[in-house]
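INFO batch 0412 | record 1 of 1 | parsing
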Amino acid sequence: MKTDIEIAQEAKLKPIVEIGRELGLEDDDLELYGKYKAKVSLDLLNKLRNKKDAKLVLVTAINPTPMGEGKTTVSIGLTQALNRLGKKTIVTLREPSLGPVFGIKGGAAGGGYSQVVPMEDINLHFTGDFHAVNSAHNLLAAMLDNHIHQGNELGIDLRRTAWKRAIDMNDRALRKIMVGLGGVSNGFPREDGFDITPASEIMAILGLSQSYSDLKERLGNIIVGYTRDRKPIYARDLNAQGAMAALLKDALKPNLVQTLENNPAFIHTGPFGNIAHGTNSLLATKIALKLGEIVIQEAGFGADLGAEKFLNIVCPLGGFHPDAAVLVASIRALKYHGGKKKDELKEEDLEALKRGLPNLEKHIENLRKFGVNPVVALNAFPTDTEAEKDLVLSHLAGLGVPAALTEVWAKGGEGGIELAKKVLEALEKGSPDYHPLYKKEDSLFDKIEIVAKEVYGADGVDYVGRSRSQIKRYEDMGFGDAYICMAKTQYSLSDNPKALGRPTGFRITVREVRLSAGARFVIPITGDIMTMPGLPRVPAAVNVDIDESGRITGLF
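INFO prediction complete | emitting tokens
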């Protein structure tokens, strides 16, 4: 069996200018990064402003498991299938982070015959957007420490700095560090730390900004620390926003690539769904909506994270909403949620499968709470038995939920035709009742409670440490209307990653609350979630190599 990277390297790509022309773009609308990658001009939105928006399909999933459910693969395969049916369809995805690529996950550009290409470029440095975010983030950190070193005219309290460093790598040793050691010329010693780049507020800002002026304003609103009397100090107080925006000039432009079947794909920004809002940029989605008939939008992790944030945050900000949704599940993942161990999932076990179905049911219920009716994509794997497939599909039929077995990994677009037809039927009905679960004017406490109870199924929320006073402080600072961006484990509906299936009788524990003033998020940190992951015992990086001809191997 061929690996993902072998399949991708054998693909016959079209020059990206041809993909652009098929979308109706002129060559001047593209900024080429080689032959197969391009950035699109921000002037496109203005040029296309009178064009009717395409239909939008959200792709989400059940709570992920160590085996992977294939959400990105299904998003790409569905795009290819819809194009085979004559529908001009574009997929919009996030950019992969080097941390997961070299950590536990491996490549993150789809799989099998449903991939975006050039796969190696997308998984590695791509067009440099992550580097630009790193540079802008760490420039602000350097300017903060330099201001303190040069006399601290703003009176920043060294005990209340609020801006860490960032690096796009899983490096647990950098979670907490000391800076400024080595004498007077090296600055003031203080505790600091690193977040992984997708968790940077600048990544969220980049994904939400809709113009250079919007970008610069949001960057200026970043809070870098507080004075002794707790007055906030902003990036604009350091006059940092202009230089940061300059570093992000090209990164703000969405990236255009293609699928293995030469269909257009926008891949732009990479916020994690468990610690940020977890979707590609607003600009990429809005441009895609003007260029196609259907746009397939993937949201990070399960429907309790990426989809919740897409529906509660991104849609209101972007002024759009999904016309249909696809909920990805797999039989092996459902058995895992039903109590089977990872090394037992190849065995048929109908009882474990039945025990895992409530996880799927909860995500269906959640999407319906937003007024969005999902189609379930049952992603097929070779170890699935006919009895297991029949059990899941008949169960969904009994719930009145449309579903289709998909084989897009093995067959590409051909393997997603049944799903595509179900999605087209769902688009005919639409989602006229879409609505966020909370209003911006609700209190921060109420918004957190709504997400915890309605989406996770918790009995309530417990605030420990300083978390309650932090929320009150942010409300006093004028951020009571901010969106709630919950940081929670992706592996469970609860904040306990070991509570699989559909846990009940639990409460969400908020141990810290952070403010991303530029993104205008309040981020409750729940359970043991971390903003800097670590590498596993055997990182995926050990399998990655390059030969004498420059051919990369081992990227999944």
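INFO post-check: The chain is about 35% helix and 20% strand.
INFO record closed
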